[in-house]
Structure prediction request, 453 residues.
Amino acid sequence: MSHAIAAVSTGMSVSAIGIIRLSGEGCIEIAGKVFTLYNNIPLSQAPDRKLMLGTLQDKQGRTIDQCMAVCSRAPHSYTGEDTVEFHCHGSPAVLAAGLEALYAAGAQPAKRGEFTKRAFLNGKLGLTQAEAVIDLIEAETADAAANAAGQVGGMLQKKLMPVYNDLVDLCSHFHAVLDYPDEDIEDFGLASYESALKQDAKALYALLSTYGQGRILRSGVAAAIVGKPNVGKSSLLNALAGYERVIVTEVAGTTRDTVEETVMVGTTKLRLIDTAGIRETEDRIEAMGVVRSKQAVENADLVIFVCDGSQPLTAEDQAIIELCADHENAVALINKTDLGQVVLPSDLPFMNIIEICTATGEGLDMLAGVVDNLFAGEMPCDGSILTNARQFDAVRRAYEAMLSALQGLKLGLTPDAVLTDVEAAMSAMGEVTGATVREDITARIFERFCVGK
Ligand code: GDP
Prediction:
């Protein structure tokens, strides 16, 4: 068990209940120094995993709070260590004083994500499960929360482990045969390895193909708002975001850089990217914006083209239409319908065309309907899909190494040549399951957490 750490696990804002968490070596003894049970039983003799009422005191013995404490002894706790949680009244002053008392009694401040990191290091959670804890805390939609909860429950880990275990078996057998040629070890049985590898590669391919949906579920749809200057792109972003995020002016070309805003449109989470007007320009700063706009269209899951419906379409509009009309998911908005309409839906080569007025909000509900139609679908939200770029990258590397191993087997390469690929696949899979992940990578993963998680 590591040294005892303490932190407030709920937010430091006024609330009905606030929780201080304590975990590690000697933490029940430390807690016993600052907490007296109403029934006068020493905390060290208190039953396991049962909430008990008592008083929390500071160093001078003054009462900080009347609250509940629960002891969870190793290994039956979140971290796998002895743990004590105090359920206090949720005043930031109470929580700060309680934490101070625990530090004075011997606990050290917890680092970001340290409780979950310990849970991972103690084998209570696989790495995908630990990573999903932060997704669950940060989930912004019910579907994202359900998916993260499924991952915390081990749905993804369960899919990855059989592949990882097969690779470990394969490697150990290869090594046994290569390193002990004189021992009577069952020969390779290349055919059976080949079929296991094929099956596992197929499973990884299926998993990799879920990432597009998974990324959207976790991070939202990347939506680029494009159109020439002054057509109402920033006004649209503001209307959807519900407040003045972008300065809207009447001078063409004022939104020079890209601006991002996450909004719910219908039931879909959009990461709106307002781009500088896509147009050929001499201006260097604006030109950089144009480059970004082109990139934004390329990287977008959804392109929202905006034009000023009260003015005839120009060559500039046409150039932008060309840039985005082929996009898989594109919507055209004919804006400023309040000023009289000269641009008609039949003038635009888009599947989805909506007449809107960002000044009054007219037509925005239609946009929500189109977005939901395009993106809210039959996405499994049970935690069995890939949602995270790091995991996707490692699974992709494992998949490619497995294809290379299969190719080697087919070409009749020597076992040690095939082994190199199988080991590469195993190591890449280990980065996802947590079995072979490097310390600096785990450190970076848990740094994303807040203190107390
Ligand atoms: P952007 O350059 O494409 O981002 O365009 P802005 O959002 O900055 O809008 C340019 C000008 O058009 C501003 O003066 C807006 O107030 C105005 N505008 C935007 N949408 C509408 C609309 O629906 N109706 C009217 N009448 N004016 C609008």
The chain is about 45% helix and 15% strand. The longest helix spans residues 155-179.
